[in-house]
Amino acid sequence: MKQLPIGVSDFRDLIVGNYYFIDKSAFIQEIVRDGAKVKLFTRPRRFGKTLNVSMLKYFFDITNAEENKKLFQGLSIESSPYFKEQGKCPVIYLSLKDIKEANWQDCNRRMRKLLSDLFDEYKYLRDSLDQRDLKNFDAIWMEELNGNYFDALKDLSKYLSRYHQKKVVILLDEYDTPIVSAYENGYYQEAIIFFRTFYSAALKDNLFLELGVMTGILRVAKEGIFSGLNNLAVYSILNERYSSCFGLTEIEVQEALEYYQLEYNLQEVKKWYDGYCFGNVEIYNPWSIINYISNRKVGAYWVGTSNNVLVYDLLEKSGNDIFEDLQLVFQGESLFKTLDYSFSFQDMTNPNEIWQLLVHSGYLKVQRIDEGEKYAISIPNLEIYSFFEKSFLNRFLGGIDLFQEMISELKRGNIVFFERKLQSILLHSMSYHDISTHEKYYHNLVLGMLLSLTKEYHIHSNQESGYGRYDLILEPKQNDKMAYIFEFKVAKTEEDLEKKAEEALQQIAEREYYIELQKRGILHILTLGIAFYGKKLKVKVK
Q1: Rounded to two decimals, what is the model's pTM?
Q2: Lowest CB count within 10 Å: 166, 241, 426, 506, which one?
Q3: Is 185 helix (H, G, I), strand (E, B) or coil?
Q4: Bridge partners, residue 376, by sequence
Q5: Strand 38-42 vs strand 209-216: parallel, antiparallel, or unpaired?
Q6: Where in the chain is the domain with CATH 3.40.50?
């Protein structure tokens, strides 16, 4: 039985090591047949981008062409008429997946080292260069501060093309990693100035370029990285073309499960790892499938492979509408949103950017519902559900245990202990949020923590009932269970907490927020007035 390629992303290592391999070499045929000079593929992390780019490297590279040819024996590309393109071009391959520095100085230093190592692979070119080009080559090679790093890829393509008398293939893997890291660490503007020129110089109007292929998670658009690339074709999860080239189809998953004698658990695997839709093709998460086969049990494998900082950051900055939409998603409903191929760091407060990020990063699935840009958005599978349920609680609310203890006290009617647990969560959450004087902030906080209860409750926020609009209701899916009505107030002083909590409780009674629950046959209703002041709170109940 073949080994599983866990962590193996080099195509040659995978083939030579005789790992289990799902043939995606039809991707090469599509690449050659595609008329676009520069192609950008955006997919979630660990969906096979690096392996596919590595496969392109070994296919096109003029160096060791005959040896590399053997790697493709028995694969679908071998019988393609486009196989004649194998070994015909010099290749520049650069992966930026590890450029995740804390500041611009370190990022700049890492880029110089990365480009120096790249030039070292081609030091045989030095003997063919004139004095001027040799000086430029050596400045990059020796990591000199005065090296022309902006034009490094363009210059290297010129040297290679002249030496081999062939135009060059440039492969850039995970191009957006340093940009995302720059945003997360506060040096975005400095980074974008460098990378905008760095990528454009290599891919725009480069006379020595035969083909350019880039991969990433997001298309960073509005900042101008691609503004000058009129020869760029973008293929995201929204496109039908290349839809089955990344991730695993259901047939591929079935074959893998049969090979490892796990076909009996296909339905459980489907619930956990299926649900993605790339273009018009149903796709499974490949990283999760491989790890499931290795461990022979279902679990959340993919969601733990990233720190999810950008997702958390957007959720922290999001408004009440986002949490209300997430509430619907948690309850198995679909949202209807307008999406495109681009993501803007300049407009992070725009709710649409949040959905762009969650979709293109693999946290939500999409299905086109019209000929335009309207899509139905939903949670794809149980693994992603577990991310929102567990990781969200850990990040924002002090941990799953604390949250569950709080909910248990609420269900038992132990309001004193419920108040204590909620107070602990509030103290924890303040390390991630600014203290607010606005009720909306606390409303979002409580709504966010209750989203994981959608298996047991329908969660309603800011809806009309009785003679007004309540803040939050937990409606049990079983009518004989307890329902909960929450009303929130913000006090101006700590001494006013008690008074404001009473006011909130009185408002529920006077405006009869419980009417709609009673109409639905729910008779057990607990009303809670909660007042906040900074990190302090008071709960009153009836």
Answers
A1: 0.84
A2: 241
A3: helix
A4: 336, 367
A5: parallel
A6: 11-235
